[in-house]
């Protein structure tokens, strides 16, 4: 499949295409140094920037480690607690009551900034839909709950994404090829 990715992501995204990570589910555990999900995390960011470029929105050049850390904590909690059932709020942890903003702030995002903002998108799929490509497609082309506006929001200048194999929705328990995905978008002034 030939796909175009905007600079500065062209080289890294072409490398990710070769791994097959766009169309496979991430590992259940990140493994040593996170390599078990690294390609899937970058696949999310590549697809997001491809969608932004297609929409005429500036690409996000800055991957932010604090946002990635907040996304990693949330995706693990969601997958382990499995509270993303229909009608639930996937953005608020029912045990810790953490929110996207509180998770980002706890990870160090916004420190020293006069103004900062974060927004989060989440996705869970299985049976062929637990992939980075399926997650970004759903956020941009299917969901009507504001995900497209977040992913394509021109105000956001940095992001962090994380993925894990498995389900955050109890309806998908035991289903094959499952993936849970979280991306945080932010800006600081």
Structural description of this entry:
- The chain is an alpha+beta fold.
- The chain has one domain (10-188): Pathogenesis-related Protein p14a, CATH 3.40.33.10.
- Helix content is 37%, strand content 16%.
- The protein contains 6 helices and 4 strands, in the order ααβααβααββ.
- It has helices spanning 10-19, 35-54, 65-81, 100-106, 132-142, 147-151, and strands spanning 62-63, 116-125, 158-165, 179-188.
- Strands 1-3-4-2 form a 4-stranded mixed beta sheet, sandwiched between helices.
- Helix 1 (10-19) packs across helix 2 (35-54), helix 2 packs parallel to helix 5 (132-142) and helix 3 (65-81) crosses helix 4.
Outline the secondary-structure elements.
Blueprint: H1 10-19, H2 35-54, E1 62-63, H3 65-81, H4 100-106, E2 116-125, H5 132-142, H6 147-151, E3 158-165, E4 179-188
Parallel strand pairs: 1-3
Antiparallel strand pairs: 2-4, 3-4
Helix pairs in contact: 1-2, 2-5, 3-4
